[in-house]
């Protein structure tokens, strides 16, 4: 069954996580993984519980997500100053947002709550919106001493857009929707989305964001796709329906190898064997957001599933590697020939595409008016924050926060055989 296949992949995913072991740090993956990917991994495990009802990982997810909130409950963690980009922080917020939407068990009352955590990250990032360069947008990085401070990347701004849209519909607060509009409009104006809805990587502030890096990753259109679908659901404005349809059309470029039609490919690196630990996880997010889009924009279901079904079957064939014979590879287009790679990203991607087959069987995301129970705080993240640029003990406030670090990229080997379970 699909649930049995997802369970195998999820259990193999948790083999790579040691944060729930005595003496290790909850919410951290071992080298070579970066901090953000653990937050993103928890998002996959939240989805696993949402789709299957299997709660075996819930305690580890809750422990890790609460351990990493930082001293001000905003996912600004002091031990991650060299790996904190706006996108990194944002992925943790998206997982917290999913927890609220999916009615994942709420934390104890004396702990920060899922919705409030998402709101805190939103507020910290809204305060970093930078009008001085490129007419707006978020910089890639949060701290100015790290490489990448001078880069404004699409995924940071896309995550902010996605989060703002989802906060708008969850809370009913128009201010979040206004910020979502602002982030979308900036992405278009600066050219990080082309007129034909291709999403590029980013550009540098020193060039006023005119030197656009045109590399295209799967998660870039994915994050905007779901955000646009949510905005359509919230506003009922036809322009968002047009945006959804056009993004979905261009997303098909990642499912377009003639030999294996409708099977997802990370086109920027898979064909060249250059994917790194971050890249291996990107297909997970496109799968996640495509499936979620069908709940906010139901007319997309048939088109989405035409890509999800073949991709899920192909991913399952790749889950035949490692000593267990069940670890998942990255190249779904290779069929049953395991590609020899294993890792967190490979497991996450296979898990998300497989469990997306269950999207029609689960309820839509909740809001605070449709049964959501997570407690929010619209002022969260508006006060002091952690800033290592200042002397120890000095508090830095949001309106003075700086930014910057380039997440390093390392190639990983490893993960695939549960294909028969979903075929």
Main beta sheet, described? 2 strands, antiparallel
Distance between the termini: 8 Å
Mean pLDDT: 92
What percent of the residues sit in helical stretches (DSSP H or I)? Answer: 40-55%
Identify low-pLDDT runs: 390-423
For the biggest β-sheet, the strand order reads 1-2
Shape descriptor reads globular
Strand composition percent: under 5%
Radius of gyration, in angstroms, nearest whole number: 20 Å
Number of helices: 13
Number of strands: 4
How does the helix and strand content classify structurally? mainly alpha
The succession of helices and strands, N to C, reads HHHHHEHHEHHHHHEEH
Secondary structure: elements and pairs:
Elements: H1 2-14, H2 35-52, H3 58-67, H4 86-101, H5 114-126, E1 151-153, H6 154-171, H7 174-190, E2 202-204, H8 219-235, H9 238-251, H10 282-296, H11 301-318, H12 344-355, E3 384-385, E4 396-397, H13 419-422
Antiparallel strand pairs: 1-2, 3-4
Helix pairs in contact: 1-2, 1-12, 2-3, 2-4, 2-12, 4-5, 4-6, 5-6, 6-7, 6-8, 8-9, 8-10, 10-11, 10-12, 11-12
């Amino acid at each position: 069954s699909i649930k049995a296949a997802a369970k195998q992949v999820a259990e193999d995913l948790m083999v790579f996580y040691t944060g729930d072991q005595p003496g290790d740090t909850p919410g951290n993956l071992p080298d070579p993984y970066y901090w953000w990917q653990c937050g993103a991994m928890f998002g996959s495990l939240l989805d696993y519980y949402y789709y299957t009802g299997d709660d075996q990982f819930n305690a580890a997810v809750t422990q890790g997500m609460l351990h990493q909130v930082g001293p001000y409950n905003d996912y600004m963690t002091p031990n991650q100053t060299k790996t904190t980009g706006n996108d990194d922080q944002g992925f943790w917020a998206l997982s917290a947002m999913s927890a609220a939407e999916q009615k994942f068990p709420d934390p104890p009352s004396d702990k920060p709550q899922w919705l409030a955590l998402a709101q805190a990250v939103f507020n910290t990032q809204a305060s970093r919106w930078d009008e001085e360069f490129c007419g707006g947008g978020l910089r890639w990085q949060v701290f100015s001493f790290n490489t990448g401070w001078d880069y404004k990347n699409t995924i940071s701004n896309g995550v902010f857009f996605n989060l703002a849209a989802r906060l708008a519909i969850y809370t009913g607060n128009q201010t979040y929707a206004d910020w979502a509009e602002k982030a979308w409009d900036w992405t278009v104006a600066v050219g990080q989305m082309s007129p034909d809805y291709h999403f590029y990587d980013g550009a540098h502030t020193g060039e006023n964001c005119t030197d656009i890096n045109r590399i295209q990753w799967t998660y870039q259109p994915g994050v905007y796709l779901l955000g646009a679908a949510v905005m359509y659901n919230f506003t009922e404005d036809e322009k968002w329906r047009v945006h959804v349809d056009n993004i979905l059309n261009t997303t098909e470029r990642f499912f377009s190898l003639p030999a294996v039609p409708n099977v997802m490919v990370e086109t920027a690196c898979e064909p060249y064997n250059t994917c790194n630990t971050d890249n291996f996880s990107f297909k997970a997010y496109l799968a996640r957001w495509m499936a979620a889009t069908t709940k906010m924009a139901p007319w997309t279901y048939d088109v989405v599933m035409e890509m999800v079904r073949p991709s899920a079957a192909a991913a399952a064939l790749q889950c035949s590697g490692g000593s267990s014979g069940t670890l998942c590879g990255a190249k779904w287009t290779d069929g049953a020939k395991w590609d020899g790679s294993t890792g967190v990203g490979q497991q996450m991607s296979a898990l998300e595409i497989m469990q997306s087959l269950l999207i029609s069987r689960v309820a839509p995301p909740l809001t605070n008016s449709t049964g959501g129970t997570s407690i929010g705080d619209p002022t969260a993240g508006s006060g002091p924050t952690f800033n290592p640029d200042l002397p120890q003990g000095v508090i830095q406030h949001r309106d003075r926060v700086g930014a910057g670090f380039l997440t390093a990229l390392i190639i990983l080997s490893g993960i695939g055989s549960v294909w028969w379970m979903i075929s």
